[in-house]
Specification:
The chain is of the alpha/beta class and 128 residues long. Helix content is 40%, strand content 23%. The protein has a five-stranded parallel sheet, sandwiched between helices.
Length: 128
């Protein structure tokens, strides 16, 4: 039996080392990551990739706050699950998206297991 095709994931992370690790995690979990280093690149990828299964967005981007980017993304793709990654207290971020079950928060630094749990909370199971 053939392995399932990878699902597409948008990774928005400006720190190269963090992006490299997150890309590896996403790949191991059955996602094909498309990486952006800033909000402008993220919006371009969002418009070009209609089949994105999830977006993983860093809160601290060089050209726009990640939560503001997520709001813009939400306008184009209201159904897209979004994980906000932050090294700060996630409670503030969660409160900004209260009532939106398609937005989760992932505290940095995170492990592959943390990512699996956060994706699961959004209804996205990892594919082996």
């Amino acid at each position: 039996m053939d392995a399932p095709a990878p699902r597409e994931a948008l990774l928005v992370e400006d720190e190269a080392l963090v992006a490299m690790v997150a890309e590896e995690y996403l790949g191991e979990l059955g996602f094909e990551p498309f990486s952006a280093r800033n909000a402008a690149e993220a919006m371009r990828i969002l418009e070009e990739r209609p089949d994105l299964a999830v977006a993983l967005v860093d809160i601290g981007l060089p050209d726009q706050r990640g939560d503001e980017l997520a709001k813009r993304m939400r306008q184009l793709r209201p159904e897209l699950p979004i994980l906000m990654a932050s090294g700060y207290d996630g409670g503030d971020i969660k409160s900004r998206f209260a009532g939106d079950a398609r937005v989760g928060v992932l505290s940095k630094p995170y492990t592959e297991g943390d990512l699996v749990r956060a994706l699961g909370d959004l209804g996205l199971a990892a594919q082996a």
